[in-house]
Design brief:
Elements lengths: L3 H15 L4 E8 L2 E8 L11 E2 L4 H14 L21 H4 L3 H5 L28 H10 L14 H15 L3 H13 L19 E2 L5 E2 L8 H4 L2 E2 L1 H11 L5 H10 L4 E3 L2 E3 L4 E5 L2 E10 L2 E8 L4 E7 L5 H6 L5 H11 L4
Antiparallel strand pairs: 1-2, 1-12, 3-6, 4-5, 7-8, 8-9, 9-10, 10-11, 11-12
Length: about 350
């Protein structure tokens, strides 16, 4: 059996050949032991504690916050938006019936992106940076779904943003502070944040196109729950450990709620934020992202007591995008597959 370091190198080699100038941090937790490799095809590798934008990996933290608040009995999974968002802001009765679980499983029927995203002057280099609380409020007031939820599961970036907004309203804190106080601090996630600190700034990597052209930072002032988080591979491994049953007992119990298969979504099932695939007869829970010049994969296999975190500072190539293949998805799933017991 190859060592964990050999596994990480073997399964990421193809990515590093295809994205020669990408900085990649690859992490594996197996039976509670962490292994981290900082890699680059050409040039100096990044620091092992480099900070990356998580993009859509933010979603599994937003749903973790939901699970914590449900476990604390501050919310229910079937809590409707009408109980959390004032009627003056969410005027449509059918929209108000959307539940937190439907947002977390992408069955709310909300569109993928805000319909009024182009209603104000945009900066192409930061496509969500102009989308303010005012524009978000205008969307909510004008949203009139044609039929009530639930709908077939279809990913909604906007829906995760609405979920983050609803959770922060109930917590009485902005999204970043709610996640920090209720989840990250108790779990010891010191580098997972919606706002990069002065201490983290020197470790923060810039995003790039597939060919290495720098990409300006993306910001999410009105939709932080959909894509605003930054983190390190070390923090993500601690997060995966908690999902595998290690950590503060209350948080471990809450995270189990996110792992229950709830809806079908084509070739996968969905929990709260997680995709759930069957690999060699075992459940593998995972999420991937390509956003703002970064790409990432996060996944774990309870049967193997193993989790994988892969973060890189280059977006996908045109070829990968046309084929719909997130660059780090295949190596992430392959790593977990190799650790699973034989059926």
């Amino acid at each position: 059996m190859p060592t964990p370091s050999e596994l990480l190198l073997a399964e990421t080699r193809r990515y590093l050949r295809g994205y020669r100038s990408a900085s990649l941090c690859a992490g594996l937790t197996h039976q509670g032991t962490h292994h981290v490799q900082a890699l680059r095809g050409k040039g100096l590798p990044p620091a092992q504690d480099a900070v990356f934008s998580l993009g859509a990996l933010t979603e599994v933290f937003t749903t973790a916050l939901l699970a914590v608040m449900v476990d604390r009995r501050e919310l229910r999974l079937d809590t409707p938006l009408s109980e959390l968002i004032p009627r003056a802001l969410l005027v449509d009765e059918v929209a108000g019936r959307i539940t937190l679980e439907q947002l977390a499983t992408h069955t709310s029927g909300l569109p993928h992106l805000p319909p009024n995203l182009g209603a104000a002057a945009q900066n192409p280099e930061d496509p969500f940076g102009h989308y303010s609380a005012g524009l978000f409020g205008e969307f909510l007031r004008g949203y009139h779904p044609t039929r009530p939820p639930p709908h077939p599961s279809a990913e909604s970036f906007l829906g995760m943003g609405v979920l983050g907004h609803a959770l922060s309203r109930r917590a009485g804190l902005n999204y970043g502070h709610a996640l920090r106080d209720l989840f990250c601090k108790p779990l010891g996630l010191v580098d997972t944040t919606a706002r990069v600190t002065d201490e983290q700034a020197p470790r923060l990597l810039s995003g790039h196109t597939a060919r290495g052209k720098p990409v300006a930072p993306w910001t999410f002032p009105a939709l932080p729950g959909a894509g605003a988080l930054h983190s390190t591979v070390g923090d993500l491994l601690r997060f995966l450990d908690a999902n595998l049953g290690r950590g503060e007992p209350g948080l471990v119990r809450a995270l189990k709620l996110t792992q229950v298969p709830r809806v079908d979504a084509g070739h996968v099932r969905r929990g709260l934020g997680w995709n759930i695939s069957q690999v060699r007869g075992h459940a593998v829970l995972w999420r991937s992202s390509v956003m703002g010049g970064f790409v990432g994969f996060l996944g774990f296999a309870p049967a193997a007591d193993a989790g994988v975190a892969l973060l890189a500072d280059h977006g996908w190539s045109l070829f990968a995008a046309l084929r719909g293949r997130v660059p780090l998805e295949a190596p992430g799933l392959a790593l977990l597959s190799r650790l699973l017991p034989l059926p």
